[in-house]
């Protein structure tokens, strides 16, 4: 079963493959917003029927929230499990989009052709690169290169509440020799990169209540406590002047970067000036004394993802509000325990609460950092074939984001994971006008064919 | 022209007076929200026709934003100008209202009958107490007790952008011996109170911009500055541990409370436990060492009236936002200069801005504190007759709120103002379920008849 005809087939059938992706992108599968539940379900159905069109007996598997899609196809050689997620981020602020986020378009830009839509890059476009590689292989050779389990999730952008129970309940069914995940990017938008470490995540929402009703700031101002004042005072203490997070024991389990990894990262010659310049910034904002790649890959963060309180409409209202709330998330590294982080954060907040201010919490996910087993043969097999596709030797890199599923595959399925993907830094995932380069999509499909070819042999 | 038949007439015609008020309350005249412009205009028309039904040649006077209503009626004795505002606060959070804020209802409560609607107390109900007193007087005596200018504003809840230009342009027309304003309340909901000092107000909105687009907190978190982090850090420094405001020169022009005033206030035996307990609080939150009445009446404040940034919808979004903003207001006392406060606040904020963070501002009104001329005869005339209506001797008090117009009457029209009103502490003005007691409305009308009777003689 040779590779070349598969690569040719991929080139010839690219237009049809793009049409299929646009079709999937038209489904607004926003998993965090209950208003879109039916659409998330529709995206799962779409994937089931697409896999079945490949002769793969896939099915939708219900969970308490959004369904999983699972399909198995037998074959010779090693058994790989491919994971991707078909849900997407919310689209707000909608007014910053140039067009309907769910009316995808292929357009030419100064940097090349792109597919523009919410989810184009994260993760529908990347997910489809693997399916399209399998489709071409099947069409050329009548079979897939190896035994494959397809596993798609619809809750990745909303904390994956059903993932752990589902993995535990289906541990035997989901066993494979290695998991492949396509939800990452090219280093500096050009170097194919296999991610060997990812940060974990702990999401937390706090709501402070002062007066039991909104008050007139003239009648009560000065004598009544304002919960926004308390919230800003507490969150204003999150970092010290050096940018170090002030929550007690926050850094427990944070390792110093090993010298060999530090050397590999230095060799990447990361251009942080361009990385930040592309988003209108110039100064790395992390802890003083850390390199930009450390800030992004090997150091933890505390980020206020949202805050609201009082009157936020047009004009002005002299209200002294009853409530104020914030969504806060922590990116975790090394052995940091997300549950301990949550507990310590809450204790730290409560220690700063003045009289009369009550607090309530809402949890939004918790996952530890992941370290990949780079000694697994698939890593070297993949690294060795990607250079030919992209014109740059593939590199082992870190990742600032969190892909909790990789950690769960290890802890629950006791299976190693290899993360490789084709997204670019300017894809604007989670932001308005998200896009995926046609180059990422096309070469991504070809890259999966190369990787499967290398793994099977 | 005796008073008693007027008071009897007021008692007999109360139901009709209430119907007129409900009619006015049905008009959603929210001045700060452009969506309600036509409704604000409709409320002005309603007042013009109501005054005309009294034989007063009133007219609507256009401004760049919302119209003023002006009417003159000649008569013997002193010339008073009565001011009230017919616009109202926004109604959000709407879900906390028990019914449509603009579908007024008269209902019985454990504390007596109330008129429930946005604006019932602030200020439509209070404004109408004066008109209804004039109506009864006219119906009994065929004329009004003295020369009166009616002057109603529709921008009081949105910073009064047109007020100063209008006063300057119509300085001669609006001259009177004294201005009467009904936009205040009873001390502790029972003692008739003539306010002799009011705090000023300076409203400011700041918007911080970090990255030029929303970012993924995994891809950029740690290296990219988060404007919510910066905003909370800056606003978290607004007060020191003793509750004193940290903006340089903020306290310039803040006088210590004169001993005679302090003695009068002590004599009021203010029950701050009940005042705060009614809104679910127990501890005065102002500067340590100040009495609760000082915190409310004679000390300045800094209040964050609104804050927003990042993702604030359901669920969670790991976004590193481009923007964060806050609406901040300062209550001013003594000789504090609102323009200097704005300038010093901006300088204080900018001194704390890190690299890469840009700031923009929006002004929301500026007015100095007011000190009334209690030696004007009207003050003693009013004080002497209010006790009979309310069963408590009237008191000279302070006010934590801002009624900028009183200051403008002094600075532009060179006219003294007397502030008296019938609102109660639990009227929930600016909050959901605002109400005005029928007792406030009824006795308020009778009180104005008594005051006009005392002033004319």
From TrEMBL, chains A, B:
It holds the Pfam family Peptidase_M20. Residues 198-356 form the Peptidase M20 dimerisation domain. SUPFAM superfamilies: Zn-dependent exopeptidases (SSF53187). GO terms for molecular function: metal ion binding; peptidase activity; succinyl-diaminopimelate desuccinylase activity. It is an enzyme of class 3 (hydrolase). The keyword Iron-sulfur does not apply. This is Succinyl-diaminopimelate desuccinylase. It comes from Tropicibacter naphthalenivorans.
């Amino acid at each position: 079963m040779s590779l070349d005809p598969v690569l040719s087939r991929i080139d010839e059938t690219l237009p049809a493959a793009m049409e299929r992706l646009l079709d999937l992108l038209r489904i607004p599968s926003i998993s965090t917003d209950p208003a879109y539940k039916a659409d998330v379900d529709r995206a799962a159905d779409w994937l089931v029927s697409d896999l079945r069109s490949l002769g793969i007996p896939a099915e939708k598997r219900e969970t308490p929230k959004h369904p999983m899609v699972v399909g198995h196809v037998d074959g010779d050689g090693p058994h790989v499990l491919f994971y991707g997620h078909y849900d997407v981020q919310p689209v707000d602020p909608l007014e910053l989009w140039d067009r309907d986020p769910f009316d995808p378009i292929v357009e030419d830009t100064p940097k090349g052709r792109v597919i523009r839509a919410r989810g184009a890059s994260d993760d529908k476009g990347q997910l489809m690169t693997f399916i399209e590689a399998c489709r071409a292989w099947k069409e050329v050779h009548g079979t897939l290169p190896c035994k494959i389990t397809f596993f798609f999730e619809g809750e990745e952008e909303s904390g994956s509440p059903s993932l752990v129970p589902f993995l535990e309940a289906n541990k035997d069914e989901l066993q494979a020799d290695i998991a492949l995940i396509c939800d990452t990017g090219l280093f500096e938008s050009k170097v194919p990169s296999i991610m060997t470490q990812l940060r974990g995540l702990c999401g937390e929402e706090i709501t402070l209540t002062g007066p039991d009703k909104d008050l007139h700031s003239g009648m009560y101002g000065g004598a009544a406590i304002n919960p926004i004042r308390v919230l800003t005072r507490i969150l204003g203490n999150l970092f010290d002047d050096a940018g170090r997070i002030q929550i007690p024991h926050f850094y427990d389990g944070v390792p110093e970067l090993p010298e060999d990894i530090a050397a590999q990262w230095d060799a990447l010659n990361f251009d942080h000036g361009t990385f930040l310049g592309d988003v209108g910034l110039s100064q790395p904002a992390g802890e003083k004394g850390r390199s930009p790649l450390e800030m992004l890959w090997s150091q933890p963060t505390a980020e206020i993802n949202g805050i609201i309180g009082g009157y936020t409409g047009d004009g002005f209202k002299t209200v002294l509000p009853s409530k104020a709330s914030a969504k806060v998330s922590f990116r975790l590294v090394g052995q940091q325990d997300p549950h301990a982080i949550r507990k310590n954060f809450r204790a730290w907040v409560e220690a700063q609460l003045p009289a009369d201010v009550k607090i309530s919490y809402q949890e939004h996910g918790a996952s530890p950092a992941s370290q990949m087993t780079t000694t697994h043969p698939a890593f070297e097999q993949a690294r060795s074939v990607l250079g030919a596709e992209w014109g740059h030797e593939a590199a082992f890199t870190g990742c600032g984001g969190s892909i909790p599923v990789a950690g769960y595959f290890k802890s629950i399925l006791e299976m190693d994971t290899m993360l490789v993907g084709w997204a670019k830094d300017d894809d604007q995932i989670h932001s308005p006008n998200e896009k995926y380069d046609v180059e990422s999509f096309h070469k991504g499909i070809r890259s999966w064919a190369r990787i499967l070819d290398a793994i099977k042999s």
